[in-house]
Design goal:
Layout: E1 3-7, H1 13-34, H2 39-47, E2 51-56, E3 59-68, E4 72-80, H3 89-103, E5 108-114, H4 119-125, E6 129-135, E7 143-150, E8 153-154, E9 157-158, E10 160-162, H5 184-187, E11 189-191, H6 199-206
Parallel strand pairs: 4-5
Antiparallel strand pairs: 1-2, 2-3, 3-4, 5-7, 6-7, 8-9, 10-11
Bound molecules: coenzyme A.
Coenzyme A binds near residues 80, 85, 87, 91 and 117.
Length: about 210
């Protein structure tokens, strides 16, 4: 299989239109999993360069819509066509998001995932760590888990680890409540003092 990933904003017009229709369709098909977004949300993500699509031998198989904050790249929607799952398409989309995050010197890749979805196994398989949970905003609220993965790694192991926010972290019965600063407090990295840093790593962290 030949995989290729391209941001919708950079596509040829015919390919762009086909991909946007594919993206609009995702929440019609699997809104229970990825939530519902109006077309304008995809259009804005497209214009901002925050929507990319994966092709396998030229066939559209998946999309990711992401956002950024000071510390993190956040996956808002990841979707692989039903007949193209479990053959590493999801992984390819995540790896691409990781590269974007690294290029922009972000330290975490993070996302919220409804706890009743099989996708939680996907995030766990890819090495994401469960951080906390909160109630979703749907009429019948579901618990949503926060999954994160550090983006900067040293050869010895993780360079950064996510701070343990004992006062913020939801227990199995108590949801996490966001502070006004949002995710930023959860994403604040601390140096793991047991791992020696290279000069390059020091420079990256000083930014
Ligand atoms: C979640 C989703 C993007 C995964 O895409 P995918 O292409 O099927 O996943 P991959 O083939 O890349 O799987 C990567 C790893 O996750 C595991 N995995 C993926 N889906 C899984 C599932 N439903 N149950 C158990 N493990 C799963 C794979 O076995 C693989 O593990 P391995 O490397 O140990 O073999 C896809 O199932 C999807 O689009 N689901 C509907 C939308 C959705 O739920 N989005 C996420 C909302 S948070």
């Amino acid at each position: 299989m030949t995989l290729s990933i391209e941001h919708t904003r950079d596509m040829q017009p015919w390919m762009h239109d086909e991909t946007m229709l594919f993206a609009y369709d995702a929440c019609r098909i699997d809104g229970e999993c990825i939530g519902w977004l109006p077309r304008v949300a995809y259009d804005q993500a497209d214009q901002a360069g925050r929507l990319f699509a994966l092709r396998n031998n030229g066939d559209l198989v998946g999309i990711m819509l992401f956002g950024l904050n000071a510390h993190s790249i956040k996956c808002y929607q990841i979707w692989v066509r039903r007949d193209a799952r479990l053959i590493e398409h999801g992984q390819a989309l995540v790896e691409h998001a990781e590269k974007i995050g690294q290029k922009l010197h972000k330290q975490l890749l993070s996302l919220w995932c409804a706890e009743d979805l099989p996708a939680n196994h996907f995030w766990k398989s890819l090495g994401f760590r469960w951080q906390t949970w909160r109630w979703g905003s749907a009429k019948q609220p579901r618990r949503h888990a926060l999954w994160t993965r550090p983006l900067l790694r040293s050869r010895e192991g993780p360079l950064l680890h996510v701070a343990e926010h004992t006062t913020q972290r939801g227990s199995p019965t108590t949801p996490w409540a966001p502070k006004p600063s949002g995710l930023a407090n959860l994403a604040t990295p601390r140096l793991n003092s047991t791992i020696p840093l290279t000069q390059t790593e020091r420079v990256l962290l000083a930014r």
